[in-house]
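Worked example 2:
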Amino acid sequence: MSTDTTARLASGRDESSESTVTVVVAFAANALVALAKSAAAVLTGSASMLAEAVHSWADTGNEVFLLVADKRSRRPADRDHPVGFGREAYVWSMFAAIGLFAVGAGVSITHGVQELLDPQPAEDFGIAYGVLALAFVLEGVSFVRAWRQARAEAREARRDVVRHVVVTSDPTLRAVVAEDAAALVGLAVAFAGILAHQLTGSAVPDAIGSIAIGVLLAIVSVVLVDRNRRFLVGEVAQPATRDAVLRHLVSLPQVERVTYLRLEFVGPRSLYLTASVDLLGDEHEVAVARRLDELERAAVRVGPISGAVFTVSTPEEPSLAPGAGPRPDGAPLA
């Protein structure tokens, strides 16, 4: 593995602090927006505004889960947890996604249906528009912060930004980008519902807006739950990362070939390596064991590798080769 590649891999751990700042910014923005929307919902009686207030309170609560996820996942490894606590990030992020579905989507859809069955007139539309404008600015600040982090990481990994947000092993970044994007779309839907209510005098468009916001939140939460589920059960590294690690292994002076390689995420930007290698020479058991131990110790010194297990290949096992087709020089780490 080249020096540049190793540096790229190693830099992944430093990005956790970026994610923490991103979540803190999102928490502050959502808390302020939730207070403003709640006041506007009470003053105007708008169903869409109430749905937006519930949405923002759900997002605020979710940021707390994400902060817990970030803190607990970075605890150092101990005897009972030799590869660390990285997967806790996906557990707490799963709670946040489920909360978004149960609170945000459930309450918004329920209130919208109730409003359709028993329409209530709204008033003081100017207050609603002013709060929506303030919310758009604050949500926009949070979204820009998260998008910039995602764009910088995507550029390093040589990926499209949207694809990076989907495949990244950092659940906090994915959650903030998805929630802020949904919030901005929800604000547009709420504005349309309130405007239609004002122009027509009917509460039906406002109620439909509340239901639409709930459906949007449900879709986002299902996507987030599925991504966290995949990492909890064992998501493997992207092909380019796997190829870079394989090239590094076969370049080592004591390794003749590699016949098995698995890189599985055990936390945000943290991989566990399992490999079978054919060592050069024909040494006795003690020497082989020591050389395998040296390989394992060397592997965990490479940025995101939090643990490694090497075994000796049998002669009949075929050698692995990096994937066909051109690959980037670096090793993008999701």
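Residues 239-312 form a domain with the Alpha-Beta Plaits fold (CATH 3.30.70.1350). Confidence is low (pLDDT under 50) at residues 1-13, 324-331.
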